[in-house]
């Protein structure tokens, strides 16, 4: 079996990446090419692609490989149980028959509340679909995503192929160094919970004409929520966070904002060239750049006054209103880059380089993610813990490696060094309390015959050193971000 196939031996999935994966990729490339060639094209016969065996196999593979695969939906089934008790081949064949015949009905998503980061006490509501619903949503996404990607604007970076948060930060950095230093730092209030279903479906119908696919999408939107109290509540708006299809639907809804804000930058627009932008600035007219990641976005404006960006704030509110969305009053503010603002875990600030008269846009690690990772490490290293040190080190290493990989493009050397000291002391204090050690016992444990300090280690597992992570500048890719389906075509 190819190395990227799912870890099971079911005959239905044998050769998936070689056969089904290639077939699905070719299908996606064609859909994307046709959608890009004609912006007014509406796709009429795509339902057959959704329940195609190759699409369902690829959808299953993605669901099973997902980190949340072990979590059951409202029916209590997980991919592992389906494989052991039903068999993947039979499960997918039954699911395909139900979709083809029109008998398939999405089940209510299982509600799960998790605390929002930052210690605000607020919770985020996640909706966990059944495995069958996840597979069908994944199949829908495989078909719909390449079509709508042809329409999405390049200033949108969240939940899109080949794009990441670092690209959004790099764009802010790029335009911030070019004078765009007034910032509307905005957040949409309960975006996933508030999207108007009728307005969203109208956007989807702009590209999809197949009524069977439209019925499937609407059925997922109206499936309802199985609350933690065991009751089913109706969904009148929104698309549940946790669903595979939800991020794509949110991007479709928010593309109306992207289109409005980027219209002046298109060829022939009033901001389409640098000369036109300068001419607007000379006339005292606003010049701005829009950057969005999911429901978080910023508007960067060039000039000496915040008045222009305040006008844009009201304009954006009016654009969002038909979609049932509104800006969060608590999280939306106008700032100057010299004051600094947080975005996607980074703190971005326009400041003077120490010892010089030169000013630059700097990207640091924001306070909140640092506090969050330290809080997680505290929970892993309580003084009364009797966990094996090897297990503790493995868990901390896994957490810190991912965290530093995300922030290694920031000005983070001192932050990483501080984190290394924090982890070291947490482990040392835990071990001192466990063994009732004095400081001389710690020295005996962590120094060699020459008196030189050794890294903390247990059974061949050594504490990961965040301070050793190399800081690398993330290069702004702009229009050079690859499109997987354009390349495949």
Automatic annotation (TrEMBL):
InterPro entries recorded: DNA/RNA_pol_sf, Group_II_RT_mat, GrpII_Intron_Splice-Mob/Def, Mat_intron_G2, RT_dom
Keyword terms: Nucleotidyltransferase, RNA-directed DNA polymerase, Transferase
Transferase among keywords: yes
Enzyme class per UniProt: transferase
A molecular function (GO) term: RNA-directed DNA polymerase activity
Pfam families in the cross-refs: GIIM (PF08388), RVT_1 (PF00078)
Enzyme Commission number(s) of this protein: 2.7.7.49
PROSITE patterns recorded: RT_POL
Taxonomy, superkingdom: Bacteria
Domain Reverse transcriptase span(s) in chain numbering: 95-348
PANTHER family, A to Z: NUCLEAR INTRON MATURASE 1, MITOCHONDRIAL-RELATED, PROTEIN YKFC
Protein name: Group II intron reverse transcriptase/maturase
Organism: Streptomyces malaysiensis subsp. samsunensis
Gene expressing this chain: ltrA
């Amino acid at each position: 079996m190819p190395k990227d196939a799912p870890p099971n031996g079911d005959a239905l999935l044998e050769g998936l990446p070689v056969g089904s994966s290639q077939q699905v990729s070719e299908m996606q490339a064609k859909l994307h090419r046709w959608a890009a060639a004609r912006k007014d094209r509406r796709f009429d016969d795509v339902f057959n692609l959704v329940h195609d065996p190759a699409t369902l196999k690829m959808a299953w593979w993605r669901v099973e490989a997902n980190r949340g695969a072990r979590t059951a939906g409202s029916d209590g089934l997980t991919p592992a149980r389906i494989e052991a008790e039903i068999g993947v081949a039979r499960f997918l064949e039954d699911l395909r028959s139900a979709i083809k015949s029109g008998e398939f009905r999405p089940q209510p998503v299982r509600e799960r509340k998790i605390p929002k980061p930052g210690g605000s006490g607020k919770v985020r509501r996640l909706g966990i679909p059944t495995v069958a619903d996840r597979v069908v949503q994944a199949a829908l996404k495989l078909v719909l995503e390449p079509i709508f990607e042809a329409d999405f604007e390049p200033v949108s970076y969240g939940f899109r192929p080949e794009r990441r948060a670092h690209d959004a930060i790099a764009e802010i950095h790029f335009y911030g160094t070019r004078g765009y230093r007034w910032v509307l730092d905005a957040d949409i209030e309960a975006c996933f919970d508030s999207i108007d279903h009728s307005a969203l479906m109208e956007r989807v119908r702009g590209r999809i004409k197949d009524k069977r696919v439209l019925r499937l999408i609407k059925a997922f939107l109206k499936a309802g929520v199985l609350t933690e109290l065991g009751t089913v509540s109706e969904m009148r708006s929104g698309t549940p966070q946790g669903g595979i299809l939800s991020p794509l639907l949110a991007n479709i809804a928010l593309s109306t904002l992207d289109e409005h804000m980027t219209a002046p930058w298109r060829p022939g627009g009033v901001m389409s060239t640098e000369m036109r932008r300068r001419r607007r600035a000379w006339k005292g007219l606003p010049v701005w750049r829009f950057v969005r990641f999911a429901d978080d976005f910023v508007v960067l404006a060039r000039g000496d006054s915040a008045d222009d960006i305040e006008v844009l704030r009201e304009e954006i509110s009016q654009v969002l209103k038909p979609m049932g969305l509104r800006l969060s009053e608590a999280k939306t503010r106008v700032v100057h880059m010299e004051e600094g603002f947080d975005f996607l875990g980074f703190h971005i600030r326009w400041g003077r380089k120490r010892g010089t008269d030169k000013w630059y846009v700097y990207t640091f690690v924001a306070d909140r993610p640092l506090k969050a990772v330290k809080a997680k490490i505290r929970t892993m290293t309580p003084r009364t813990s009797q966990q094996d040190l090897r297990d503790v080190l493995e868990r901390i290493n896994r957490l810190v490696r991912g965290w530093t990989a995300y922030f290694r493009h920031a000005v983070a050397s001192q932050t990483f060094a501080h984190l290394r000291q924090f982890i070291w002391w947490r482990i040392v204090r835990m071990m001192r309390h466990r063994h009732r050690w004095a400081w001389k016992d710690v020295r005996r444990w962590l120094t060699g015959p020459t008196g030189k300090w050794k890294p903390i280690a247990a059974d061949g597992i050594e504490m990961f050193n965040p301070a050793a992570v190399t800081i690398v500048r993330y290069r702004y890719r702009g229009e050079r971000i690859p499109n997987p389906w354009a390349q495949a075509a």
